Automatic annotation (TrEMBL):
Record's keyword terms, sorted: ATP-binding, Carbohydrate metabolism, Glycogen metabolism, Nucleotide-binding, Nucleotidyltransferase, Transferase
Top EC class of this enzyme: transferase
Pfam families the record matches: LbH_GLGC (PF25247), NTP_transferase (PF00483)
CDD domains: ADP_Glucose_PP, LbH_G1P_AT_C
Origin species: Chryseobacterium pyrolae
One example GO MF annotation: glucose-1-phosphate adenylyltransferase activity
UniProt record similarity statement: Belongs to the bacterial/plant glucose-1-phosphate adenylyltransferase family.
EC number from the UniProt entry: 2.7.7.27
Protein known as: Glucose-1-phosphate adenylyltransferase
Amino acid sequence: MKRNVISIVLGGGRGTRLFPLTYSRSKPAVPIAGKYRLVDIPISNCLNSGLNKILVLTQFNSASLNSHIKNSYHFDIFSKGFVDILAAEQNVENESWYQGTADAVRQSMKHLEKYDYDYILILSGDQLYQMDFREMLDFHIENGGDVTIATIPVVAKDATGFGILKSDDDGNITSFYEKPEYEILEGLKSEVSEENKHKGKEYLASMGIYIFTKSILKKMFEDGAGDDFGKDIIPNSIGKYTTLSYQFEGYWTDIGTIESFYEANIDLCQDFPQFNLFSSSPIYTRARMLPPSKINGSYVSKAVFGDGCIIMADKIENSVIGNRTRIDKGSTIVNSYVMGADFYQNTTEIVLNDRKGRPNMGIGKYCYIEKAILDKNCYIGDNVRIIGGKHLQDGDFGTHSIQDGIVVVKKDAVILPGTHIG
């Protein structure tokens, strides 16, 4: 079946709910699983689906994301594939920045004219899932879709936090409700598999993944359908265009908050994680020429390590340890995500800091860290205790912030020896 597709990955807005991880980077540029960035997920799904014409739309805090895309995705000179960046721009026709997800695509349509495509695949840059988009495209084409929305069955308690789509037995979407009240949910059930029905997953939530037939999307933009896909374009397409629901049965999570980000990473440490990093569909990222990780005298259980780490910790349990992480002797890391570092500290500087009692990059001696996220390039002194938990009050405290009981140490933060947090 002909699949002449161009894929567009939305680079994300301010990402305020992921602060402080998004203080100096966009959401899709946030490191995940110790060695990847969130944007690697949709791009890898595209490449594993045989779709190699990919544009990433960027606007806010885009320097880190742009650098990652430039250094990660290269195709040989005989390939027609590409992963290119389309940065927001002001011009003589439009002096405003992107006003929403649909407006970002609308303003970029003029740059797509040089490409040959029949369908547009719209993806979010901050979700965790593995999906073969070819199956969704075939569904769209076979059923004569103008718009197809990937949906995932959810239970009633989760439905109030999503855009809920009601579909008929043929998969046609008949109505849409953005974060509906619990009282009206009973009338929003859709036809799902017997397994999902048994689990109480009878409500179809939008995954923010869309396929548009090219001519239909252009017509929607010409008719002024709105600035946002979820709030404007999708609700306005129902009843006017053939709008279909494509039910996805696999694992999917939206990395929208510190809590969801933390849980998604910690889950990777389990024996059978919901997101499988070890499948036949690889996650692509920047190829770093780093040495293997070195672990000396540590008790390690249910941990994921990136490359180039130097570990002398006493204990690491149920934690993700990112590239170039250094953890000194006697320290314990439990239920935490340590993102690592962007570079190795100079050996002379390390010796000098040790003499003067200053923290080095990484985690010092005899520290205890539990239920925390340490952003990149942190300097954690000796005998530091960081213990998250629901007993902690949310807030921003200079070197760190606390959300939902999770302590987030900021990028480049210096935590002095003997400091206690939690």
